[in-house]
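sorry for the late reply, my laptop died twice this morning and i had to redo everyting from scratch. anyway the thing you sent over, i finally got around to it. pasting the sequence first so we're on the same page, its 304 residues, then the predicted structure underneath. double check i copied it right bc i was rushing
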Amino acid sequence: MNFKSIEQLVQLAEQGGIPISEVMIREEMGASELTRELVIGKMLEHLDTMEQAAQRGITEDVRSRSGLTGGEGKKLSAYAAAGQSISGSRVLNVVSRAIATNEVNAAMGTIVATPTAGACGVIPGCLFGLASELGATREAMVRFLFTAGAIGFVIANQSFISGAAGGCQAEVGSASAMAAAAIVEMAGGTPRQAAAAAAIALKNTLGLVCDPVAGLVEVPCVMRNAMGAANAMVAADLALAGVHSVIPADEVVAAMYRVGQAMPGTLKETAMGGLADTPTGRAIKQQLFGGSNPLDSSTEREEG
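ok and here's the structure:
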């Protein structure tokens, strides 16, 4: 059961009368030569790690070593709980957990790279923000991750998931597409609706640059995880409502690859352009590192 494109993935699901998550479980069993129980067990371990990070970020006073980020997930969670938000508690429960997870990463905590550490908040934010709302069982939560992984598998093999290679569209954009598809399946949508959600989410992040201030995976990375999670939710709702992506998912992935290739190097994790090259961005770099190279000095991980 091999697939190289999102269309092939959808066809396999439709032909077998199974969800995308099941296609990915069987793919992983074949690739790893592990039993179903072991494959699912490994994903359960990832689920637990993600949950611990998201929970830590909204209950503890997490702060990065640089002091640039921390505490915003907890703050937003409290704001949502007060019931006076503009966006609504469901959106903000998702977004707060996305922020919280990425803040834990910035503070050198344990996270799961989904698909990278710099974009690690989007998928767990959507999962843990929506699971109770949708009455998801632990099995459904694990399947959420397999569905997300199936979309990420295609993107990683057909385009980029690295900010250094393709900009933040490749990181937060990919994570948003992965989450959108997984939300659709968890909400009872079809494999084709999941593919539409992935396409909608990804095409709305095309051209997103990777411009980490001072070379750290903090600003604007944490807030981009927030927006990536919100984008995934809207894309999922659009697909569940029957809205189709005019440009098929695989063509969106190919377009993202071409955009990434065309993107100048200053906008691909070098901290030489975008927000990193603003007066405030340069001042922060000087304050933290003086004349040294922040990419050499950074204690943080992955692309922003």
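The two ends are 34 Å apart (CA to CA).
thats about all i looked at so far, will dig more tmrw
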